[in-house]
Write a structure and sequence with these properties.
This protein is mainly alpha-helical. Helices cover 62% and strands 3% of the residues.
Length: 282
């Protein structure tokens, strides 16, 4: 019996030593956060009402009463809340904001992937991410100073390019998904948050239907795995890969919310100070 206990303790120590430093408590927490985020988004997907559509089979009853007609028009406006919209001109900051309703060809999806990779949003986002990583000394193998910041910045830009090429171009072309973001634009803050989260897991199809967002879920995971080829040796672990994946999903949700309000920000803030184009005008 004593020999058996000794053998079990030895096996436990061996497993502990083998995986020591690979999946820390921080990594486990981030993994749980990522899983919880995906579950929450999936739950919200079931809670968000279907996009409003005009029914030709059941038109609203006509009425000669002016008050009834006014109520009908008001109800019609409320029904349009939450319907995806397009802006009238391509946005340079977020190239994937839909500015046309026609589906993209495979070549156009490739061009969109490149545009997303070198957009102002990509450069600023990578700069911010590199700064946060620099402050947290993560990945630690990159060191500090200008050299460390440059490595973090380059890695972030490479991650974005990989995600766009895999998701926006390749998977979206194969699965016939539309990788653009169609803003809702006229909902409350609560509706906008739900819609932004929903678009993480639901994508518009080329035929204007909806489906599970495989490109948006698979591409960040593939990118996190690919990043192991240029990450420091200490970060080439399962735990660190899943940690990066979790942050990518969270960042995607945050970016969607910013895109939701970007046309309003452009129109009310950037245009008045002369550094933006009003997307509501041709």
């Amino acid at each position: 019996m004593a020999a058996k206990d000794c053998t079990e303790r030895h096996a436990g120590m061996t497993m502990t030593d083998r995986y020591s430093g690979r999946v820390s408590r921080t990594h486990i927490t981030v993994i749980r956060f990522a899983v919880g985020t995906i579950v929450m988004i999936a739950w919200l997907t079931g809670q968000v009402p279907a996009l409003a559509q005009t029914s030709k089979a059941n038109p609203p009853p006509s009425s000669s009463n002016p008050q009834s007609q006014t109520s009908a028009r008001t109800a019609g406006k409320k029904e349009l809340v939450g319907k995806p919209k397009v802006i009238t001109k391509r946005d340079l900051f977020f190239p994937d904001l839909a500015h046309g309703d026609q589906p993209l060809t495979s070549g156009e999806k490739f061009k969109l992937a490149i545009a997303n990779s070198v957009s102002p949003a990509a450069f600023l986002g990578s700069g911010l991410g590199a700064g946060i990583g620099q402050a947290a000394d993560s990945p630690a193998g990159y060191g500090q100073g200008a050299d460390g910041y440059g490595k973090r910045y380059g890695a972030s830009m490479a991650n974005r390019a990989s995600t766009n090429l895999i998701g926006t171009y390749f998977l979206s072309s194969v699965l016939h998904d539309d990788p653009r973001y169609f803003v809702m634009g006229d909902g409350s803050l609560k509706q906008s948050i739900k819609y932004a989260l929903r678009r993480v897991v639901i994508v518009r199809k080329d035929d204007r239907g909806e489906a599970f967002n495989w490109p948006g879920i698979i591409a960040p995971l593939a990118t996190a795995g690919l990043a192991n080829t240029y990450m420091p040796d200490a970060q080439r672990t399962v735990g660190y890969t899943l940690k990066n994946y979790g942050w990518s999903i969270a960042a995607s949700a945050g970016a969607n919310l910013l895109k939701e309000y970007w046309p309003t920000i452009t129109r009310k803030i950037l245009v008045p100070i002369g550094i933006g184009h009003d997307s509501a005008k041709p």
